[in-house]
Amino acid sequence: MSVNAPELELRGITKRFPGVLANDRIDLTVKTGAIHAIVGENGAGKTTLMSILYGLVQPDQGEIRVRGELVRFSSALDAIGAGLGMVHQAFKLFPTLTVAENVVYRNEPKKGWFIDRDAAEAGVRKLADSFGLGIDPKARVEDLPVGVLQRVEIVKALYRDARVLILDEPTAVLAPQERDGLFVIMRRLKAAGRTILFVTHKLNEVMAVSDRVTVLRSGRVMADLKTSETSPKAISKLMTGRDIEAVARPSLGNGGEHLLRVNDLGVVDDAGLVRLDRVSFEVQAGEILGIAAVAGNGQSELIDALTGLKPASSGSISLNGVDITQAEPAQRRLAGLAYVPEDRHRVGTAAGGEVWSNLLMGYQRTPKFRRGRWLRGTAVKEHARELIAQYDVRVGSENTLVGTLSGGNLQKLVVAREMTHPAELLIADQPTRGVDIGAIQFLHRRLLEYRDQGRGILLISAELSELLALSNRILVMYEGRIVAEFDAASTDEAELGIYMTGGHLAGAVHG
Amino acid sequence: MAETLRASTNRVLRNPVAFSIVLSLLIGAAIIAATGTNPLLAYSEMVRGALTGSGLRNTVSRMIPIVGMALAISIPFRAGVINLGGEGQMVIGGLAGTLAAIYLPLPPVLVIPLALVAGMVAGALWALLPAIGQTALKLPILISSLLLNYPARALTGYMVRFPFADPTVTSSSTVPVPESNRIPKLALFDGVSASLVLLILLLIGVALFNLRTVPGYETRMTGLNSRFSRYGGVAVDRQVVWVMLASGGIAGMIGTHLVVGETYRFLDGDLVVSGFAWSGLLVALLARHRPGPMLAAGAFFAALQIGGLAMQRNVNVPWQIAQVLQAVVIIMIAGRFVLKARRETAAVIEGETTVTGEV
Ligand SMILES: Nc1ncnc2c1ncn2[C@@H]1O[C@H](COP(=O)(O)OP(=O)(O)O)[C@@H](O)[C@H]1O
Ligand SMILES: [Mg+2]
């Protein structure tokens, strides 16, 4: 192993899947102690490349060197042995075990025949504290929010002495504050000499944290740049082959009649804690109402209460003049509610079902698709084909299993289904999370069209720029309350940020 | 020609079920050879015993309850609900159906269908208990349905020992079902029970339900992802109740058939020792809740069991060999599932997932 060899060196990596060349002769050199960003649209081949590097996928061609030494990984265990660690987008943790148990899994400190629990906890605590990760080794994983789970995954990799951390779209699941926290951690890891491969498709993140950036498009390396010598605009053009198109600012709502009226809505959780505290607002026809909040400030409870997945404890909800406070989800759909859920994997789709059966959900009892108890098979499939075409979902056919779709395509499928619903009100929870720039623009245009048809949208997003660009009004939630309301045209990220973090309570703003 | 033969052999061997059957036959042959009998002779006796003469009738008769119970279990299974209480539902339904067939003072054309209905209702009600336990009290059906097999056995045992005992016999059983009220035999397969027709109709009905109806679609989606179903407006709790009612109903009907169509007396423990509920569970698992394969797998197991008896009679190879064969087939197929599950668990742990094109 030579001293000056780069941490990682990939040469001519090629991987072909049936019908796609996912990686096409990729060269990549990563210096020790660098934060190296890998960017590209959905399907550009980022995850494939990272999986090859981590031994999960075998390349058809090409070679990998780690610190100058030629390696051949036949499984992730080999890659771990060579000092690599990967944090996947979907976390691989045992929900019922504690943080420490998850971290030491397969490397447990032993006392005789037993796991030395104290040593495990102490070891994990020390490691976590040394990088300021702020996690409690005794906490049970199922009780933790995603941002923390991600840090648990990082500790897990560090515990196995990972010199190189591969983070595959780590920010896709994070709120802005959590994301900043992650960046702090990444910089600390870098300062400690670790190397980080950071996969993303958000250009502001690339600019904020990386030293170098490699741009992938259609499985090819388009450029390898020093971050300080490039710009978001240049990277975007390399990623997409086109210039960024700014989303037009919305015209004002054209309806004015109240679609959704929420009155003093309250949610108390099983533990007796108030999660949502007397929230009242309206959504008008022809309006996009944005909700800005840091994760865990009552917005999920609000959505569950609106959609009927977990009913409210107090207050009332009326949709189109119909009281739906106690209605079941099916009745709410009939009353005119459509819903794009935040978690498209666990709530919004069934991976084991076909595209057509996923596109049918929620409509299966509408006259268009049934005759009595019988499904109208041809109508169902035809509908699926139409939506695939209209929303440009890239799939083989309506019979493809949804589990094989990439994140962006899956999101298009969910949005397609919900927007085609003959509903008056769409609740869109993080509609563009984890989706590439091209698809984001597409989805934004659809949302605006929807509004222009005189329908209403309640938009919840962690991307303040998205809220500001699309909404007519923005409500800010903090600790279960609505703490501020803004005209979207006359506020900005900084102002929203203050209210979202409770800064107004500290006297940072008056009033 | 040789090429296509090789290709089709390859295809068969790559099919997990076919592969397991071939391999288990080889293992069985080795065991039979070890007992000093020519395996080919033993197997030919087995095939002859299962498929010719009265053997064919016996095979088909045995297939009816196995496939029936498989069907009963598959309905909730497909919706993600594991009903292990088939046995209890069958026993309770069987007793109710038998009592109706014995005591209803009506003409046979009415009594027989009413007995089947009584069996269905009783089985369904027995299945309703765990369903309500889960939806109202959050007791998992997997456990409560299994546990309810014991009181079902005890309750029916008590009934045929005391209130409905036949005082003229020493065994604990009911009086026989009057001849006129028994389920008739068909002229088919040397006199197999008319329940076969009912079973075929049920299979077709369930296949149509699964593939063509709105609730069939909804139950499948719930089985795939119940949160998704709930989100899509499916009343999942109500669905749990319905699939359990259907499951218990079919089990109860099969129980009724076994007495009113086969043994004519409800004898304590009779329906339990036959193990139909468990053979049915295996068949349902193998066929992965599709009615067509369920019929095939049920017929195969029935033939193995009947053929095994013939093999014992004619060439003196113990019939347990047939059970060994059945066990090997199951282990092989289950092994494949376990391997797959282990691979998936390992994937969860080490991230050895296949890349699915996730963002
Ligand atoms: N296991 C697989 N089988 C078939 N095609 C795949 C598989 N994994 C990825 N692909 C395809 O390879 C391409 C690159 O995918 P991926 O590496 O996941 O892209 P990214 O992470 O940049 O979004 C996509 O077209 C995807 O559909
Ligand atoms: Mg990816």
Which short descriptors sum up this protein?
heterodimer, A: 511 residues, Rossmann fold, 3 domains, 6-stranded mixed sheet, 16 helices, B: 359 residues, mainly alpha, disordered C terminus, binds magnesium ion
What would a concise description of this structure say?
Chain A has 511 residues and is α/β, with parallel strands linked by helices.
Can you describe this structure?
- By secondary structure, chain A is of the alpha/beta class.
- Chain A has 3 domains: 8-240, Rossmann fold, CATH 3.40.50.300; 245-336 and 423-511, P-loop containing nucleotide triphosphate hydrolases (Rossmann fold), CATH 3.40.50; 350-420, no CATH class.
- Chain A has helices spanning 46-53, 76-81, 99-104, 117-130, 146-159, 176-191, 203-209, 232-240, 299-307, 329-335, 355-360, 377-390, 407-420, 437-452, 464-470, 493-500, and strands spanning 8-17, 20-30, 35-39, 61-66, 69-71, 84-87, 110-111, 114-115, 164-168, 195-200, 212-217, 220-226, 258-268, 274-284, 288-292, 314-319, 322-323, 337-340, 370-371, 374-375, 425-429, 456-460, 473-478, 481-487.
- In chain A, strand 13 (258-268) and strand 14 (274-284) form a beta hairpin.
- In chain A, helix 13 (407-420) runs parallel beside helix 14 (437-452).
- The radius of gyration of chain A is 24 Å and the shape is globular.
- Residues 243-249 of chain A have low confidence and may be disordered.
- Chain B has a domain at 67-288.
- Chain B has 16 helices and no strands.
- Chain B has helices spanning 2-14, 16-34, 39-51, 54-78, 86-103, 108-137, 141-147, 149-161, 195-212, 214-224, 226-231, 236-263, 270-273, 276-287, 291-315, 320-350.
- In chain B, helix 3 crosses helix 4.
- The longest helix of chain B is centred in the last third of the chain and has 31 residues, at 320-350.
- Chain B is globular, with a radius of gyration of 22 Å.
- Classes of the chains: A alpha/beta (511), B mainly alpha (359).
- Bound molecules: adenosine-5'-diphosphate and magnesium ion (MG).
